[in-house]
UniProtKB/TrEMBL annotation:
<dbReference type="InterPro" id="IPR033132">
    <property type="entry name" value="GH_1_N_CS"/>
</dbReference>
<dbReference type="InterPro" id="IPR001360">
    <property type="entry name" value="Glyco_hydro_1"/>
</dbReference>
<dbReference type="Pfam" id="PF00232">
    <property type="entry name" value="Glyco_hydro_1"/>
</dbReference>
<keyword id="KW-0378">Hydrolase</keyword>
<protein>
    <submittedName>
        <fullName>6-phospho-beta-glucosidase</fullName>
    </submittedName>
</protein>
<dbReference type="InterPro" id="IPR017853">
    <property type="entry name" value="GH"/>
</dbReference>
<keyword id="KW-0326">Glycosidase</keyword>
<comment type="similarity">
    <text>Belongs to the glycosyl hydrolase 1 family.</text>
</comment>
Length: 487
């Protein structure tokens, strides 16, 4: 089958401000929820990921102590804050058509509840967008990518508090008006469905504050649905030709066996992700939500006008991250778990290989995911994240990352298959196009990029940039619009 990608397909790469920028105390920036995450190489990996799922008061309080001796890697990122011109020039050299990035809320409103924005922060993103546009790179911007102000957590209780809607909309309106001539693609919330698994970084909820954490999670989610609808409405008014999308983490789930219990459990688990796109794309709470809420003991506080607002302001496209699939069993007690599958856990699939971090690699699952989402919503799709976290070794100044090329090429081949299936896919941004701090483990040695950054997990190094073999490979893929995929 010949390779086919649309003529105006948006090839590019993706990062998040909290993982790439650094400059945590520069330009008037405030602390974000991600600035609290620590890294300690003497502890097992499970400890690094545990804090991703649950944050405590003690950890938050210590992070606000300027005398803390702990390492907070996301405060330093890979110094994009100072090196953005160099990095964007490298993206342009690869041929990027788009760069998916996020705006750090705390650069614009350091505490989150201010009435007036921080001009230094606004100026920084003016310069970043101008640099992108200089090379013909279309910015695709996430407004909230695990970067809400920490102050809104400690003083307001996060998104469980309805007041945060107004703070967020003030932020969104500010940046929409500021960058209306520079940005045409917007995503209000990154991986909005991940509130299920890590409520602290997703909605600013510290679990020990809530006797019914499920109530807090889904109340926070409802407030984000309202905020997303308000932002979509504002965007369409301020930038009439702009497109607004939702974004979820889509880990394809498959039954471990043909046991009907496994099949039913898989359907139930998959719905916990599709619930979010059902609301944001279809504009209504799905029929199955009633039972789901009853079983979780959730009773949403919905104000007059909320449901109408959500119904009238659905998203224009659906974007998602895809890294792996996961096998689901209703009776997992005697089965081997897939420990690396951070979103859902799940059972290890014997037909799939795994990365060093235990993420099961399933390229064909991406084609299935694209078809599932398009069958369900009939809206344009954007693959906003996809990549392989791996340890890269420098040999004579070079990084031969054939394993990354193989991973990405197999996934791109499956996007090609989905396009032939008739799925409307309009773009693809490889995750961590330059090495960044890992979201879940807070280390940089779990590398994703086409560009190597010379720094280790403890922050030691020159921060110099080095092109990997995958850099030239991706450059060729973009130049030929995917015509020469071989795997």
């Amino acid at each position: 089958m010949t390779n086919y990608f649309p003529e105006n397909f948006l090839w590019g790469g993706a990062t998040a401000a909290n993982q790439v920028e650094g400059g945590w105390n520069k330009g008037g920036k405030g602390l974000s929820v991600s600035d609290v995450y620590t890294f300690d190489p003497t502890l097992p990996q499970r400890n690094w990921t545990d804090q991703w799922h649950m944050m405590t008061h003690a950890q938050v309080e210590e992070a606000q102590n300027t005398n803390s001796k702990k390492l907070y890697p996301k405060r330093y990122g890979v110094d994009f804050y100072h090196r953005y011109k160099e990095d964007i020039a490298l993206f342009a050299e690869m041929g990027f058509k788009t760069y998916r990035m996020s705006i750090a809320w705390t650069r614009i409103f350091p505490k989150g509840d201010e009435l007036e924005p921080n001009e230094e922060g606004l100026n920084f993103y003016d310069r970043v967008f101008d640099e992108c546009l200089k090379y013909g790179i279309e910015p695709l911007v996430s407004l909230s990518h695990y970067e809400m102000p920490l102050y809104l957590v400690t003083e307001y209780g996060g998104w469980a508090n309805r007041k945060v809607i107004d703070f967020y909309v003030n932020f969104a309106k500010t940046v929409l008006e500021r960058y209306k001539s520079k940005v045409k693609y917007w995503i209000p919330f990154n991986e909005i469905n991940c509130v299920k698994h890590h409520p602290y970084v997703s909605v600013g909820i510290i679990e020990e504050n809530h006797p019914n954490i499920e109530q807090a999670k889904y109340q926070g989610a409802h407030h984000q649905f309202v905020a997303s609808a308000l932002t979509t409405k504002l965007c369409h008014e301020i930038i009439p030709k702009a497109k607004v999308g939702c974004m979820i983490s889509y880990q394809l789930l498959v039954p471990y066996s043909c046991n009907p219990d496994d099949v039913q459990k898989t359907v139930e688990n998959q719905r916990t992700s599709l619930f979010f796109t059902d609301v944001l794309s279809r504009g209504t709470y799905p029929f199955y939500a009633q039972r789901m809420f009853e079983e979780k003991g959730v009773h949403l506080k919905i104000e007059d006008g909320d449901l109408e607002l959500i119904h009238e302001n659905t998203v224009d496209f659906i974007s998602f991250s895809y890294y792996m699939s996961s096998a689901i069993s209703a009776h997992p007690e005697n089965l081997e778990g897939a420990e690396g599958n951070l979103i859902t856990g799940g059972i290890k699939n014997p037909y799939l290989e795994s990365s060093k971090w235990g993420w099961q690699i399933d390229p064909k699952g991406l084609r299935i995911a694209l078809n599932q989402l398009y069958d369900r919503y009939q809206k344009p799709l954007f693959v906003a994240e996809n990549g392989l976290g791996a340890e890269d070794i420098i040999e004579d100044g070079k990084i031969h990352d054939s394993y990354r090329i193989e991973y990405l090429e197999k996934h791109l081949k499956q996007i090609n298959e989905a396009l032939h299936d008739g799925v409307d896919v309009f773009g693809y941004t490889a995750w961590g196009c330059i090495d960044i701090i890992s979201a879940s483990t807070n280390q940089i040695s779990k590398r994703y990029g086409f560009i190597y950054v010379d720094v280790d997990d403890l922050g030691n190094g020159t921060y110099n940039r080095v092109k990997k073999d995958s850099f030239e490979w991706y450059q060729h893929i973009i130049k030929t619009n995917g015509e020469n995929l071989t795997s």
